[in-house]
Design a protein that fits this description.
By secondary structure, this protein is α/β, with parallel strands linked by helices. It is built from 11 helices and 15 strands. α4 packs across α5 and α4 packs across α10. The longest helix is centred in the middle third of the chain and has 12 residues.
């Protein structure tokens, strides 16, 4: 059943961080915008925290080019933010999994809208927040966790794994999961992130500014979270029968991995391609449960208030963040 009483009681507007043109974080500004209303199968969430992801940085800048899908010359959606956590305050028709007052978290990448006081989310995109986790911790898990969990489906106990970009959110989760599974892990990032990679479980660390990881190894599996290398460089890093999967990166690299990578793989016996990442609670809830149990750390480096979302994006985009960056919409209670 829909909830017209709660919907009618909502304010007409809310604060949100918006942008109207692709470019730097300076394009972001705070505005009063219309309060969203949940449609059938959707809930309205009073947000407490939203984490920053690479997808936010790419969509803000409109680069790589695939970040402009749906909005070639200007953003299709004016409010960024997809990993959210908060409390359900209104229900659309047909919602059966949640009730008013439920604490939830999830990934709303397709519609975004998380850098605001409220956001609408499909019921199927959300899960109940574990009581042991703060809203900030819950918001830090979904998208980064989905990538890390999918990457782990490619790893085998005792195998040699290299993770490029291992000092960020997805990398920090992946290092911990790999270490717990008995995988030999090498983490690659800048010098400022070597220590956090060791803390998260890396057996070896590489500063990419000092050493070309594609000339080390060989590795049974390479996961590149910031792909910009050539197909042949990735192939050089692999052991016979090894596999390399990229997530994000330049449009050129992604196209070449899907085309030249497939051909190189046929000839060499290796496998090179993109990591297809399924989304939704079935992917991130098991990881959140392990975080709630204390088995896996939620790597939060910095938290910013909603009014400082521009700074949060700048910090994330600079490559200095040691794990996740979170925007606090309001104080936790």
């Amino acid at each position: 059943m829909s909830d017209p009483e709660h919907i009618a009681a909502l304010p007409a507007t809310m604060r949100a961080v918006v942008y109207n043109a692709y470019g730097p974080p300076s394009n972001l500004r705070i505005e009063q915008v219309p309060m969203p209303r949940p449609a059938a199968g959707e809930v309205l969430v009073r947000l407490v925290a939203t984490s920053v992801n690479l997808s936010d940085w790419e969509t803000l800048r409109g680069d790589p080019f695939y970040a402009r899908v749906g909005g070639l010359t200007r953003p299709a959606r004016r409010i960024l933010g997809s990993d959210i956590a908060g409390t359900v305050v209104a229900l659309g028709s047909g919602v059966s999994r949640f009730a008013i007052g439920d604490e939830v978290y999830g990934d709303i990448l397709e519609r975004k809208g998380g850098f605001a006081e409220y956001a609408v989310a499909p019921e199927i995109a959300l899960a109940r927040k574990p009581a042991q986790l703060s809203f900030a911790q819950a918001a830090a898990i979904p998208q980064s966790g989905e990538i890390a969990v999918e990457a782990m489906t490619k790893a085998r106990p005792g195998s040699r794994l290299l993770v490029n970009g291992a000092g960020g959110g997805s990398g920090a989760f992946l290092l911990q999961l790999a270490k717990a599974a008995g995988v030999q892990v090498t983490g690659v990032d800048n010098a400022g992130k070597l220590e956090i990679m060791r803390r998260m479980g890396a057996d070896e660390t590489i500063d990419y500014r000092e050493q070309d990881f594609t000339r080390t190894g060989p590795y049974d599996l390479v996961i590149d979270l910031v792909a910009y290398r050539s197909v042949f460089a990735y192939r050089r890093a692999l052991a016979p029968g090894g596999r390399c999967f990229v997530v994000g990166g330049t449009t050129r690299v992604l196209i070449r991995m899907l085309t030249v990578g497939a051909l190189v793989g046929l000839v060499s016996g290796a496998r090179l391609g993109m990591l297809a990442v399924p989304t939704g609670p079935a992917r991130f809830e098991p990881l959140a449960a392990r975080c709630a149990a204390g088995e896996i750390q939620v790597p939060i480096d910095a938290e910013y208030e909603l009014a400082r979302t521009r700074e949060a994006l700048e910090y994330h985009g600079s490559g200095r963040a040691l794990g996740k960056v979170v925007v606090r919409i309001r104080d936790e209670v």
